[in-house]
Amino acid sequence: MPYHYELKMKVRDYECDLQGIVNNANYQHYTEHTRHEFLLSHGVSFAELHAKGIDAVVARINMAFKTPLKSGDEFASRLTLKKEGIKYVFIQDIYRLPDEKLALKSVIETVCLVNGRLADCEELNKTFADFF
What we know:
Elements: E1 5-10, H1 24-41, H2 46-51, E2 54-65, E3 74-84, E4 87-97, E5 101-114, E6 117-119, H3 122-127
Antiparallel strand pairs: 1-3, 2-5, 3-4, 4-5, 5-6
């Protein structure tokens, strides 16, 4: 699958549990940070959206853990964006580097609240039209 964006990161010691592997909750942090950086790379700021009355929120997350990451591991967080109705669907995968071993497969569905109401977001539709 072709990815629209990639962000490289490194596991920090405090992200690991007693087993010496990344605690599962931290993968949500990795995917969220990747989405935010992807949006910023397209000129979209969460703070500016909120000031306009637009709040993009996570509606559903599905994660499949494949290979655990450990302290010091470098990894690439990659995403693809598609649209399903009013949902923005991020397919996000994490690969350990340099061996490209799949660590996580995830699908994150987001929706927008425009002035407090669930709605399609014309601003995001326009910004990401090339991806749909």
